[in-house]
Every structure is written in structure tokens, then in C-alpha cells.
Amino acid sequence: MDRWFLIAATLLAVIGGVTGMMSLRHNHRSRWTFPWMAGAFLAQMGFLWLRGEARGACPLIGIGEILAFLAWSLTLFYLVVGPTYRISLLGVFSAPVVVVFQAIALIPGMLDASPEPVPGTDAWRETHSAMSVLGYGALALAAVAGVMFLVLDRQLKDHHLNSGLFRNLPPVRELLISMERLLWLGMVMLTVGVVAGFMMGRTGDADHLIAAVVVWSAYVALIVVKQVRGITGRRFSLAVVLLFVVSLSVFAFI
């Protein structure tokens, strides 16, 4: 039953992304991407609720559930940030990422067919798991904004100033501001997750906790460089995108 919710969420995200791209081909913004993604979010909630009931804890057991939770987190931040910063195209760029995460989660064997209750759960473990993945959702959206900046930069260099994509992309400054704020938000949540990880008092999770600290340190270094020395928008965007892609390797230790 829960798998059908995830399938529905994936199909809704596909429709949201496709309708957005079709609108761009006609040189106007899509009014339907946001509603389709909101529908995907509700379907994701249904999936996570059912898995959470079965687990008796935050559903973050195995790569499949982690990717589904990450897709939900990314969608959540898009629904909040998109209208707030008036970045309507964020949904068009976010939808493919959500689809990829959920499509991988739906590969046979990625999700337990019969999820069992999680033994020995506690508040620190739940906080560590939930806040870490929520932080990754914000960092994922920052990476999406970084991709948008790189696309806009390429459009400017290639003088594609009359394309529907260029006409609907937000200003460079607006993208950089939203990217930096998402980076800070993700880092705050990731910091809470890392601290909660140390409070768990379990040695069995040492490998993935070390990997999480390495990722956290890399993001801190990027923020320090940005604040102290300064960095061009293109290099900052490229660093945010590459760092997020590389940081996904932390899930190999879970």
C-alpha cells in the first residue's frame, strides 16, 4: 500500500516538471508546477506516515526510505522557499531530482516489503536521523538553485537572451541570496543532527557519524571562504552543487 503513495508522488512530480518545461517552451511560467508538486508532497506524506507507523519510528531504515524522506524534504523546502523568494522555476528544476530519488527508492529491493518495528529507538536517534535528512533537503534545494545560477550564467555567456528559460529565470542576485540562505538553513539542521548523533552514545554508528562530520566540515569551510575571502557566484554555485553530490556518499555508511 505505501509503495503506491510513492509511485503517485513520483508521477505527480513528473507531471509537474513536464508541464513546467512545456510552459517554458511557450515563453511563459507554469501556473501548475506548484500544485502538482504540492500533490506530490501529500502523496509523500502518505508514504512516510504508513512507513512510520510500521517502523514505530522515523522511517529512515535503508537507502530506499532515506531517499524517499530526502525527496519529501526537498519538496517541502521548495513549497516554502519557491513562493517566498518568488522563484517559480525552482519547481521545474527540483522535480527531476525528486523523480530520480523516488525512482531509485522504487527499484525492487530498495524498500523492505514488510517493514518491521525499529528496536531501541530514543529521542537522540530520532533527532539525529530526522534533522540530518531535513538538513540534506535544504542543501539539496541550495544545489538546485546553484544549477539554476549556472544555467543562467551559461545563457548570458551564449547570449541566449530571448529563450523562454532565460526570460523566466530569476535575477542572479536573487538566486545567490536564496542559495546562501538555504545553505545556512541546511547547516543549522545538519549541526543539530550531528550533535544529536554524538549524544546517542552508540559506537556502532561511528562510521556514518564520522562521514557526517566530514560533510559538515566541508560545508563549514565553504561558508567561511564565502564570508571571509569572498567567492564569485559561479564558483560558489559550482561548489554547492559538487559538494552536495559528493556528500550523498555519506549514505553508503548507513
Describe this structure in words.
The chain is mostly helical and 254 residues long. The chain is flat and about 60 Å long. It starts with a helix and ends in a 7-residue tail after the last helix. The protein has helices at 2-25, 33-55, 62-85, 90-105, 123-157, 164-168, 172-199, 206-228, 233-247. The protein has one domain.
Helical content band: over 70%
| Terminal CA distance | 25 Å
**Which structural class do you get from the secondary structure elements?**
mainly alpha
Radius of gyration: 18 Å
Instruction: Name the poorly predicted regions.
Output: none
Oligomer state equals single chain
Quick one: biggest sheet? none
Strand content is under 5%
Summary of the model, kept short:
The chain has 254 residues and is mostly helical. It is 76% helix and 0% strand.
Secondary-structure topology with pairs:
Elements: H1 2-25, H2 33-55, H3 62-85, H4 90-105, H5 123-157, H6 164-168, H7 172-199, H8 206-228, H9 233-247
Descriptive tags:
254 residues, mainly alpha, 9 helices, flat
